[in-house]
Amino acid sequence: MNPEISGKFPPAKLAAMCAHFTAKSSTPWLIDSGATSHITNDISNIQSPTPYHGEDKVYIGDGKGLSIAHTGTSTLHTPASSFQLHNVLHVPHMKHSLLSAYQFIKDNDCSLTLDIHGSSVKDRFTGRTLLRGPVRGGFFPLQGSSSSKAPTSSTALVSSSTNVRIWHSRLGHPSSVIFRKVLSTNKVDVQGRSSPDFFCKDCALAKNHKLPFGTTQSASSTSLELLHCDVWGPSPVVSVSGYRYYLLIVDDYSKYSWYFPLKSKSAVFSTFVEFKSYVENTIGNKIKVVRSDSGGEFTSHQFQHFLKLHGILQQFSCPHTPEQNGCVERKPPFG
Q: Which GO terms are recorded in the biological process aspect for this UniProt protein (predicted)?
């Protein structure tokens, strides 16, 4: 038990925190898809049993007929709900109590599923699970109390107010809107400050999609050693001259920037060719590395062939990782 989630441990004299059922738990019922009636060997499982004077018998696998002593109805009580059992036969010499699958789903208007993991009883209309049972040795037992009265319980619970952060953790870190609704609807006793609007470190960490990126350790030693390139657009407003896209180029060494307005992305290649001739002739250095994202304008055969022809290394940032080319990704297109 985690005290951060469940609150403080109660003292030893208040250790009885769970409901204690006083009714004696009966032997389990074995689900039988071939039985037409419920059969029990314990008469206490039947409410107001009626003596049976007929000649019908219950025939088992070896062909032997077992006499029926009483008939009646019963109720199978479980912690979650209760199930009605009609047409229950009391057969004293039966070794186990059998639960007729057909009669059970007919009496309770529910669905019953059997698989390798056990049995499952669900509400036929809502699909809510009402009862689950295990599988043991090829049998599907259902445990419950079949006494004529529902089991009584005596409960000793510890009631204490808990602060809002623990309630937030107990409820699975819901959003502030849902958390506020749960607190108000259920009148939860909250200790101290009851406002659900507080900073939760666990929620913030869970909503992060990636770890933060550290500061890069690489640095260029000369101009044009590394150029960061990116295309911004389409612009929501077309310029007077009809430009919708903008090619951004940033020199990693000097952080000097160039902006080139474009009418379409297809003009990126021709613009870069003209830029290369101009900047290399002006500065006197050669472009060595070009870094960009994997946009089609940079991955085209024409663009890549041009870079290889002039001995320029091309680098791509990883998909959905603009931080690797943040020098140009962070730069606003008009500032």
A: DNA integration; proteolysis
